[in-house]
Amino acid sequence: MEYKFSDKVSKLHASAIREILKFTADPEVISFAAGNPAPEAFPKERIAEISAELFRDDPILALQYSITEGYTPLRDFLKGWMKEKGCFHPEFDDLIITSGGQQANELSCKVLLNEGDTLLCESPSFIGSLNAFRSYNVNLVGVDMEDDGIDLEKLEAAVKANKNVKILYLIPNFQNPTGRTMSLAKRKAVYELACRYDFIILEDDPYGELRFAGTNVPTIKSLDTEGRVIYSSTFSKLISSGFRTGYVSAPAPIIQKIVVCKQVADVHSNIWAQVVSHRFMTTVDREAHFNKLRDIYREKCDLMCSYIDNGFSKKITYTKPEGGLFIWCTLPDSCDMNAFCTKAVQEYKIAVVPGNSFSIKEDDVSHSFRLNYSTPTNEQIKKGMDILARMTRDMLD
Amino acid sequence: MEYKFSDKVSKLHASAIREILKFTADPEVISFAAGNPAPEAFPKERIAEISAELFRDDPILALQYSITEGYTPLRDFLKGWMKEKGCFHPEFDDLIITSGGQQANELSCKVLLNEGDTLLCESPSFIGSLNAFRSYNVNLVGVDMEDDGIDLEKLEAAVKANKNVKILYLIPNFQNPTGRTMSLAKRKAVYELACRYDFIILEDDPYGELRFAGTNVPTIKSLDTEGRVIYSSTFSKLISSGFRTGYVSAPAPIIQKIVVCKQVADVHSNIWAQVVSHRFMTTVDREAHFNKLRDIYREKCDLMCSYIDNGFSKKITYTKPEGGLFIWCTLPDSCDMNAFCTKAVQEYKIAVVPGNSFSIKEDDVSHSFRLNYSTPTNEQIKKGMDILARMTRDMLD
Q1: Which domains are seen in chain A, by residue range?
Q2: Structure pTM?
Q3: 3-class state of residue A30 by DSSP
Q4: Which value does ipTM take for this structure?
Q5: Looking at CA atoms only, how far is residue B313 from chain A in angstroms?
Q6: Residue A270 and residue B270: Cβ atoms within 8 Å?
Q7: Are A272 and B268 an interchain contact pair (Cβ–Cβ within 8 Å)?
């Protein structure tokens, strides 16, 4: 029989990155297309210990239904930690656990936007969030970026040009896919725009703790005096991605609505992972653990960049990130980016993600591609980047 | 500041049961209001063993990102098991893992219904699903039930009276809240109606394996020849509720859309719980495990029913379930049900769920309340039911 789907999902497709990842099933292909944490970044011994202790001491806690808002000791820990970081204002915020940062971003859109309302975002931006927003049939409008973040003039123009602008979605730290970090001046300026034009900022910060160079920039949430910033983050890059344990700090009325929507979405997030995350965060030397992760990613990023600096055609430009997982390379305008990426995977057996996977509109033109350094081993980075460098020289020089 | 929410969530409230559960924080209150599995029903020793083995053999599998569709060995196991049970038709169905049965039901609504489209359901029905449907602003229409399931004449009338009837949502086995089981004749008849009037049946079967009396009735999915049944179930009552591991078997085009929506909802379900569930289901004597659960619930149900039979006012009628977790009691029309439930918890310290918590429309009148026997201990059942019986006699006789 023929199936008729709802308008909001009928045009929705699986992430284009998934198509690229199909090629990576070929064991000969070296993939720089993923976004997974390095396997050595997971504190697997400590997690195994904590889990064993939990099953010995309180197995029913790990197995029974729990409450939608999340495991209370984990919420209390996070409220304290986020307060220290300026990301939780006890006088007006609340904080709950979500099934990854993904759920926090999706439900923020669900509770605030009607079909047709406008959601602004950086262009390009993270495909997982873009598709979440698309799945509610909102008017998704991208605003070009500069090296230090979103273009403020174009942002204000977009606010004026679109109806019912409700949310501005931003990834200020080590943005996916560009690796760029928004300057403090711009963070202040976008917050002022939000106040002036009365919209909410959805600040997605999955990589904030993974800064391995440069100096820390305050979050937009830390500038929030009016209660108009939703701050979402996750343990995916700090403890385990497979846990699906994230969190969202936002004004209490918004959190109340997100709780109702989370209750109907999945009742609560896996409780074993919440308890393990709480015990991990409160029993390890956190800074030592984060420093270990920063060392891993700094080394991998530097290794990959050294091949770009020393081997790539000089016609390619790129952003050197100060943290996170991604490098953004841009080909000269004369080069067909899609043809380049297809040739890379089919002839050279190197998978990268074509930049238009992160486009806001289907006909946005991109000359860029995204490289990931966290998933491949150092050996794979050396071998793969050597091949890719040769390819860029053969094609462009 | 004032927050404006989307139309679909602005009228959505947290489950009324949660309000009742607040009273149960009082340690003096005996609660028959929950819906949690009995703690002794969780196979905690085997789960602890499997988890320890997993962290020893393949920790990264339990910690890294995984695919949206779910852990492939678990999907393959379920396809085989569901095929045996007639709930997976390899010629047109596909099957994926979801974050509990809740997610399967919510996403089925999201992919198929526009705002204003009609979703029919039994009246009363499971509040978690009702709120999921409400969160998409659909036209939710309840159809009265008889002892053997939904009223067929009223169902056909509702199909004719409403526009764009897309889904009929049913819990055919040991329905929540009524404990009723739909007869085979009615299952066949609703399937025929679905074919004649071209709508989809969403069959929610969380309790199917928990039959402790009577004989098994084939699922509606097992009658599906045209590919118009979505079948959802879960390990919440068989292994662990805290896992949030469910599954959905449905025609492949519907599964494809659900996968896209699941990807934007939570990327994938907690992978540790998926692997543990797979290893549990494929290494234990399943029938022996299910029989143990059936014994637990039969004993608890019989115990609770003995107090109704021997102690309750004869003016109260009830359905004796053949499985599942709930008993549905109905007061005489002259009795104010809400006043009864309030008095029960405030004066007698016994929490039950008022029947209108499961109403489809706000002004539906209910004279019933729901009792749960799975969560309280046998001692709590004895003590609490004795008090409740006395209350019914004092009030009604």
Answers
A1: 7-43+288-396 (3.90.1150.10), 64-283 (3.40.640.10)
A2: 0.97
A3: strand
A4: 0.97
A5: 34
A6: yes
A7: no
